[in-house]
Amino acid sequence: MAQIHLKTLTKSYGDTQVLHHVAGDIEDGEFVVIVGPSGCGKSTLLRMIAGLETVTSGEVWIGDRSVNDLEPANRDIAMVFQNYALYPHMTVAQNMAYGLKIRKLPKAEINRRVREAAEILEITDYLDRKPRQLSGGQRQRVAMGRAIVRDPQVFLFDEPLSNLDAKLRVQMRLEIRKLQQRLGVTSIYVTHDQVEAMTLGDRLMVLNGGYVEQFGTPVELYQRPASIFVAGFIGSPAMNFLPAQADGTGLTLANGAVVGFSGGQAGAVILGVRPETLVPDVDGPLRVAVDLTEHLGATTLVHGCLEGTQSEIVASLPGMVMVDSGAVLGFSAPVEALHLFDAKTQKRL
Amino acid sequence: MVEQRPFVTVLTHLVLVLGVIAIALPVWITFVAASHDEIRMVQTPLPLWPGTHLWENLTQTLFGTGLSGTQTAPVWLMLTNSLAMAMMIAVGKIAISLLSAFAIVYFKFPFRMACFWLIFITLMLPVEVRILPTFEVVANLGMLNSYWGLSIPLIASATATFMFRQVFLTIPDEMLESARIDGAGPMRFFWDILLPLSRTNIAALFVILFIYGWNQYLWPLLITTDPSMTTIVMSIKQMLEAAEQSPQWNIIMMTALLAMLPPILVVIAMQKLFVQGLTETDK
Predict the structure, then answer these.
(1) How high is the pLDDT of residue A165?
(2) Does the residue B1 lie in any domain?
(3) A81 and chain B in contact, CB less than 8 A
(4) Are residues B88 and B135 in the same domain?
């Protein structure tokens, strides 16, 4: 068990900087998810923690030591790869035992640990099979078993579920979470899937273009996104963004409608409002020309544009709501559900 | 093709049968000739059916003095020489190519690509083009008339290095990373992961290289003068030219038969792995 400290980490390949001053502390036993769009540097960050990539500047601390110059094997970590990276010529048991064999653990101890991990993961029946005889989900379990037997201070997961089908992914997601809570091992998990991130993580680190946009609990990220990027990335369907002018007492939208909002800011702002906070209101300031409705059963998504503008708006209404396309609906949203962002810096105001 | 036309069926079978005859007939003649006595083989017409002297010819060829009136080594010794040479060439080529491909694919060192291309360029320099300098080097090292001299100059192999490089490139990087996290050093990774994963390719290459080594003619001819170092492939030609007598076809053909045997055995023994090695892409 250990804390992890990332101290202003940067990473460059030649002249291209892919990570900019990434910093953060991960508590003992915490499950942190690094999330972001592809190419944001999240895998690179994980691989730097694992020791598979060199650190350009800054330091990685695991427990009470800097591990910058340690080989991956000496960092006391275990990693689960996206394609599992099982050794195809070894049986499941041999795959799990390989790292322990190299560490020269006694045979009896290796067997005990392999059996224990196999029982936890319910793969005891497959111990003598080769990876190619297993299904995707079973391989995934073996890959986790390989991590568990090592009894490491840190688990690292690199998009471990992206090769599985949707149903299995949901199931394995729950199992990973349960397993982590049961073992209490500090874990870092990389994914591009925001639902996976929200459900798994104690805390989320949102990366964008090599910068940390926000590092906080799922609820914080949802309720108080620090930037337009985080606001748009977390939550589905995504938050609506409307350009507006603030004058301290209210927000004037592009079509002249005024939304009451008392705040000190003045000037060009972006108003963010989540689809699920919009309430139908005949006199509401947000008048939406409806293009299309989607019925999802429990909710209805109403797609349209702010009347008189091109700004797209989605509203998520509970239950089945019948709306003709071309109709104009009024919406309002409670003041506490409004998010204001600076139009220039894209940061939260 | 799932067409059911009698004409096509007959034609394809005819072509196949002709092909089989073209390949099998010389082998049959060799076998027949090796089973008659010396007298019968100089009479016409030549026999087309096996005679009764097969066993006699076999023992005389293997353990006798070979052709009467010459000073050739017994054929069992030639077989041993050929076997030693072919094995040393095949195993040596595979070992060196594996290691050099390992270095080129998995290590960063200055002039890595230059090294790769240098190795690749040697494809254009087979033994035949560099006979004089190579002979000079081997002679200066005192390796004439030795197994080392027979095999070492033929061991370096660009083809095999290139092939193993391609094999290693298909192995996902995560395999190496996973092994690094498991604490395997470079040689451990090579031994525990790379070698087993290239097992079928090694087998396929072994078959090809063994036959290549076995069939060497020009180089052994140059490098050996001592009859006890003769290889079997060389000796067939020498037997034909044995001085001042008509060729003893029964003995020569028996030798040819014996010379064909080891490559066939190697192919049969490793057939399954050989096919896997050339077709399998799943790593």
Answers:
(1) 85
(2) no
(3) yes
(4) yes
- Report which of B69, B10, B174, B271 is spatially closest to residue A81, judged by C-alpha positions: B174
Is residue B129 one of the residues assigned to a domain?
Answer: yes
Interface residue A71 vs chain B (CB under 8 A): yes
> Can you give the residue range of the structural domain that contains B20?
6-63
Instruction: Say whether B181 and A73 touch across the interface (CB within 8 A).
Output: yes
Q: Do B177 and A79 touch (CB under 8 A)?
A: yes
B25 and B115 inside one domain: no
CA dist B93 and B76 (Å) reads 25
Q: Are residues B111 and B204 in the same domain?
A: yes
Domains of chain A: 4-233 (3.40.50.300), 240-342 (2.40.50.140)
Chain B interface mutation, best of A84, A101, A102, A163, highest count of B Cβ atoms under 10 Å: A102
Closest Cα in chain B, distance from residue A149 (Å)? 11
Q: Report whether pLDDT(A156) > 90.
A: yes
Give chain B's domain count.
2
Examine the domain organization and report whether B36 and B159 are in the same domain: no
Distance CA A75, CA A50 (A): 7
Q: Are residues B127 and B28 in the same domain?
A: no
Of A77, A82, A132, the CB nearest to B181: A77
- The complex's ipTM works out to 0.80
Tokens 């041993």 -> residue: B80
Residue among A281, A289, A271 nearest A332 (CA): A281
Task: Give me the mean pLDDT over the A143-167 stretch.
Answer: 89
CA B47 to CA B245: how far, in whole Å? 21
Could you tell me if A61 lies within 8 Å of chain B, comparing CB atoms?
no
Phi, psi of A290 (to 5 degrees): -80, 130
Domain boundary among B16, B36, B63: B63
Confidence (pLDDT) at B48: 77
Best of B173, B176, B178 to substitute, by most chain A Cβ atoms within 10 angstroms, is: B178
Domain match, B149 and B31 both: no
- Chain A interface disruption, residue of B108, B173, B182, B200, most A CBs within 10 A: B182
Q: For residue B183, what is the nearest residue in chain A, using CA coordinates?
A: A73
In angstroms, the separation between the Cα of residue A68 and the nearest Cα of chain B is: 15
Backbone angles phi, psi at B193, to 5 degrees: -110, -55
What are the pLDDT digits (tens) for B178-212? 999 988 888 999 999 999 988 888 988 899 899 99
Which of B14, B35, B63 marks a domain boundary? B63
Tell me the residue ranges of DSSP E strands in A122-202.
154-158, 186-191
Give the angle A44-A47-A48 at the CA atoms, nearest 5°: 85
CATH (domain of B158): 1.10.3720.10
Is-cis flag, bond preceding B45, omega within 30? Answer: yes
